[in-house]
Fold these 3 entries.
Entry 1:
Amino acid sequence: MHEEAGEQGVSSKASAAGGKRFSHHPSSLAPHPATILAFDFGARRIGVAVGDSETGTANALALVCAASFAGRMEKIEALVREWRPQRLVVGLPVTLAGAESETSRDARRFARRLAARFALPVDLADERLSSAAAEERLRECGRGGQKHKDLVHAEAARIFLQSYLDEQHASRR
């Protein structure tokens, strides 16, 4: 379900973006029309994943942390400049029954701010159970627990972005 919203090393670009980088930077500086950035929004941390709509693949990318919302937006802007996505996706946290909460409203507000700041289309994607799935996957890979806690947010973004891409691919058939 989606709707439109009105540790492989840290590269120097990751440091400029501020935050931890979990994946390689793009191979080309030219805009890539298939690139999508996804955000697992949280009040303190924002997990970021990058996907390619042509290949249908998603990868955990970064964790954005800053004391202020403005600081987090500056770091996101650096990622948008670096990756030059065609679209953004924000995870929409809903209950198992599909009901929204205050956190859902915060994610919608964040999506509207992204759309206004970057003039890009922003979709909302159901992120139900993505954090639990991310924790389980990281545990299976030997990266669970407090030591790898920061990986969960970017991995959660990867999981719901992968579902989003799978859904997009299925609808094109």
Entry 2:
Amino acid sequence: MLKPKDKISACIDYFRMTFKRHDIDIFLQTVLKMRKEYMLQQPSSKFGYVELYQFDQIRVYNSAPDDERGIMFELGGQGCRQFEGIMDAQNRDWYSFIELALQEGGSITRLDIAIDDTIGYVHIPDCLRFTQQGYVVSKFKTFDFNGSGNITTGEQEGVSIYYGSKSSDNYLVMYQKNYEQAKKQKIDIEEFGVWNRYEIRLKDEKARSALELIMKTKDLQLVAKGVLRSFLRFEYTKPLKRGKAKLNKIKKGWETFLEDVQAIRLSVEPKTNFYRRSENWLRSQASATMKMVQEADVILNRESAIDEMIAKATLSDRQEHMLEVLTCDVSDIIC
């Protein structure tokens, strides 16, 4: 995952919509505008749906004919980026897709908006400290957190704060994305730089209200700023003997962040490199082992053990599907 270039940007990071219909062929063709033959079809038990049509991280579930739930369209973070790649090839964007989906009877059941901050308006470990001490005003009654620390400096690192209950219709997460990605990419944190992420997670009625406002305004400013301001602010709720400078910095940084959120627009990062996880895993986890076996073949003067393994291997239906997608063009997938 690449660090955003803008100092502040926003994207849709999770999208789930249901349709009370079972005509999966027509749905794929007219709503997603994707060819069914490029979707991997398999049984499913998630949420009680019986069928899954999958294109890498783009997932469409279908219920039994007598189940009124019908079709569910679901995208996680990577799925959103991949669907942006599909929409880009179709000359569509989120707004035109959502407008059509609503016309086709779609009902949003979950919507996550992620806001990326690469200048560090606030220091998230300090946000945690003042939250723990009660210097926040929030609509939420509970919070949770996790993270790690540096024994030498005593500093907290990789902190995540969860405001609200994960089972509720709305909650807020703020975390140090740079620590997560630096660890994943094996990059020094100083080289990676600052990257805070704030995720607004909305379900059911909260998601429907937010989507209605997004479609009305065609931008995220009212939703993002309004939701964040109603969710949380840092205040002197009681006297503070030590740490006033840090709390003042947090207060000012948060207010500046909320003001700058007004200027953001929905950003996209279209991705069309579908099904690369297996290839990346092979490169990062198995390449050294393959090289060792090859060198052993040379030393022992024997035929290639890896070639023999490949010759005897049989591709599964899923792997056959992945191969077809890997070798096609995105224009072949759309309709």
Entry 3:
Amino acid sequence: MQKPCTRLMAASAVVFGVVGALVPRRVIEVAGRLLLAGYENPEDLEPEGWYVSAVRGKSALSALAGAIVLALEYGPSRGGDAEAEDTEDAEADAVDRADAEE
């Protein structure tokens, strides 16, 4: 259960991170509507430039972190482990056959 959940969370971090990095003002607008629903004029609020840059940076880092997790999950080391296990199984089978022939 942990592996599929990890992959799902990493993939969603990549997707939402890329969206936030590409269109941070839109992300801020949507978040503002959700978080400031009870306020009188939330549409009049304008984010400062540093805040937009911070959202863009945070989103890019989230996408990078998700991509790293996915790379670790699906990376070449997983294939290498499977190949090593196959080699060990083949060697064990060869030893068993040699013992059976004697």
